[in-house]
Amino acid sequence: MVRTEHSIMVQLFVAAGVSLVGFLVGLSTTEWILQILAIAIVLAAEGLNTAVEKLCDFIHPGHDDRIGIIKDISAGAVTFAALAAVLVACLIYFPKLSQLF
Predict the structure, then answer these.
(1) How far, in Å, CA of 20 to CA of 99, rounded?
(2) Cβ atoms within 10 Å, residue 71
(3) Cβ neighbours, 10 Å, residue 70
(4) DSSP annotation of 26
(5) What does pLDDT average to in each consecutive run of 10 residues of the chain (101 residues)?
(6) What is the per-residue pLDDT for 100?
(7) What share of the chain is helix, strand, coil (3-state, %, to 5)?
(8) What is the DSSP letter of 59?
(9) How far apart are CA 63 and CA 65, in angstroms?
């Protein structure tokens, strides 16, 4: 997945960047745990989304509106996970970054 899925590559790049900032601002143990869980949930959701899409393409290679709905639902789950991760990041980093400025 890491070598073939563009979205995973982007998410890993973002996770590495956020983690680097975490080292710079000195996250607490609890903040690290929350950040790691948020990253893991997004990557897990993306992995499951990729699996659903590949399975749908295997079962029905042609276009089908029902398969499209299934893929949309799977992608929506990733969106919810990503939005939750962004909220976690905001709650962790806004107070820390506001102290710097």
Answers:
(1) 18
(2) 15
(3) 17
(4) T
(5) 90 96 96 98 96 96 95 97 97 91 78
(6) 80
(7) 85, 0, 15
(8) H
(9) 7
Rg for the chain, CA atoms, rounded: 17
What CA–CA distance (Å, rounded) separates 2 from 71? 20
Q: Which of 44, 33, 35, 30 is nearest to 15 (CA)?
A: 35
Q: Extract the tokens encoding 100.
A: 């710097």
Residue written as token pair 């499951």: 48
Q: Any idea which residue has 């996250």 for tokens?
A: 27
Would you list the domain boundaries of the chain?
Answer: 30-96
Residues 10 and 58: their CA atoms lie apart, in Å, by 25
Q: Take residue 30 and report the two structure tokens written for it.
A: 């609890």
Distance CA 65, CA 71 (A): 10
Residues 52 and 71: beta-carbon distance below 8 Å? yes
